[in-house]
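hi support,

uploading two proteins for the ticket. first:
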Amino acid sequence: MTAPALRFPAEWELQSAVLVAWPHAGTDWATRLADVETSYVALIGAIARFETVVVCVADDDLRRHAARLLEAAGIPAAHVHFVQVEYDDTWLRDSGPISLRGDDGFRLLDFRFNAWGDKFAATRDDRLVKALFAQGIFHNAQRERIDFALEGGAIETDGAGTLLSTWYCLRARHPDLDRGTIESRLCATLRQQRLLWLDHGALEGDDTDAHIDTLARFADPHTIVYQACDDPNDAHHDALQRMAIELAALRTLAGKPYRLFPLPWARPIIDEGRRLAASYANFLIVNGAVLMPAYDDPSDTIAASVLERAFPDREIVPVACRSLIWQNGSLHCLTMQLPDGLIEANAND
């Protein structure tokens, strides 16, 4: 019998929901929890304008607490669905499911999550997809465990067979495998025709080993939006200039250059002597909009204008993310989109 055809949808395709996990005192957000919860309310409120938000909570007390904050902010309860599950951290882009769509339903790929190369404890995060699946929140789906370390933030797809990633990250996860082996494994598992590698580009304050979602993103199968650096005195300038040259050399499946949209460079954000990764490339595409990380920087306005040109049919919604990058990620890192049909519309407890 022929196996059902599966496809990895692009982020701009219709979604049923976005998955997030609420921060709490048992996570690394503990010492700045109030500020981070304010950011979460803003993020969930922005998503809820366009689609359902599935919010993971660790227990009933946290559920009630989060619900009170969201209600106080005027976010309709019908747009939020809580699910109780254990987790170590809240970076669901990396520990959440990678969804493939097929004619007979969905395949939830549950890659091994090792906290970005065993940097942190991640036992509960590695069980997250299995635990969510057991809750029955996914519609018409099968779960497939993949014994291969991969995070969702490490890959970008155009929905038409092209994957984009960074060699630095995948080599760090699999130092014993060569590029060809990793490429073959990812293309087969994710049903891709090809993988485009970037060899340059990394941000200070990013402990993911150069996730692609902080550097370069597809806006459609012919367009890439990327983080640029125009300050020759900045430590990132050389690597990001080299990355821009690499992007200019890439070709679409039709053999044409990509349309490229460089994002502006925010001023350095230093927190307790440590530079944070303020990337505008860490945006989230939702139904009808693009949620853009904002850093209280003059470049926020320029970044919004770039995204307006790259996504002319979508509303650009800035979301304050300065408090989020303290833990080395921004709004895309915290979220995982779920394709249309995977979650029943407006499900709520």
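and the second one:
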Amino acid sequence: MADEKYINFIANFDDWVSIKKLKIEPETDAKMIMEFLASLGISIDAKIEQNLGKIVDLSKVDAAIAELELGKKDTAKALESIGSRKVSSVIKEITEGLGLQKNETKEMQEFCKVYAMKKALKQCGLQVDFSEIKIPGMKKAKKKKV
């Protein structure tokens, strides 16, 4: 029993119920482990964004990124824009006044910057995470109807 290798992830929090388990045996190939971890990462990234949106107004970041009018060949522009005054001021605006300590505000700004970077690069047509990879047998998360 002590020699068994496995990865277990269990989330039971509000609207997020997720149980992901993988027992790693000698015949378990690296591809299966990689796909399992990608699935886990996609789920976690989605929940990070969802919870970030509960703290700050991400629609303002979305609007600032949309105003950049990025196209398929604008990767350099996207990278430059994330550090621009426009995007930085929006991030500062939505993270100040939350009643956080200085280091916590900086942390929140960094989460927002990563969110903005992923959004901008996706707008340029780049894959910035594993969510766009079609993994056979892996169910795509269905978007809830509003």
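thanks. also noticed: Strands lie at 5-13, 16-24.
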